[in-house]
Amino acid sequence: MVRFHWHVDGGQSAYIPPAGIAGQNETCPAVMGVPANYLRPHAIRPIGLLLAHGADADDWDSALMRALVERFAAAGHIVMRYHCRQKEARRQRILERALESAALSPLALASVEQWVVVGYDNGARVAAAVAAKTRIRIGGYVALSYPLLEPAPPPPKARAGALPPEDSEGPLVKLAEALPLPALFITGALDARCPPARLGQVFAQAGPAAAMDARGRPPGPGRAAGCTAPIAEFLEALQRGADNGEAATLRDCALPPVTAVEQVAGQAAAPGAPAALPAGL
Q: Under DSSP, is residue 79 helix (H, G, I), strand (E, B) or coil?
């Protein structure tokens, strides 16, 4: 049984028992980053972040994840991350429980109005699945180097003889159908698993916000550069939309639309040329 304890003022702790997961016996650690001044009124911003690591579970404490926690917790956001070595279907269920526990924690319950799920590598695929089915209010989706061309795992109850998926477009399509959200894709001009041109084709009409790494390389566990600034702009645009009474809406976002992804990729190939890309599911 996983136990969630939250530190509160006075050295005490509050305990929230998570919902049970059938067959789950392994303990999966999770850590919630909070602003240093969290006890002050209005210190916690109304958007929380949930981070999902990639195929290597140890990346949950990589330079990339630490940079995201430090940057956005310092900016007033609650940031939840977890560590799970199990198969992808199980990781979805545990990530969903981590989100529920964070959202129901004493620190978030009274302050956080919506959550943004952020996934790296195949953690972006896991995050898309969780965002599509969770009962917690999701305001946006962020994918760092989404494995677009990597075959997704077959569904747990796939029909006998059914062909496995050829790529990972399916989770994005399901997310768009279940919960149309502002989304942000951060990739690189040379990202073999998430080519900018293919990303532009998937969202040719009006797609998610996308941002491009100007150096032509995709995000990685040891590389946070090129990730924090687009995510910060994405969150600010979401908040501007919420302040204007427009739930799950990007307002006056400075990032270019994903339909311009090929143009941005070309700019990124030029040495020293800055490039950044968003749009809407």
A: strand
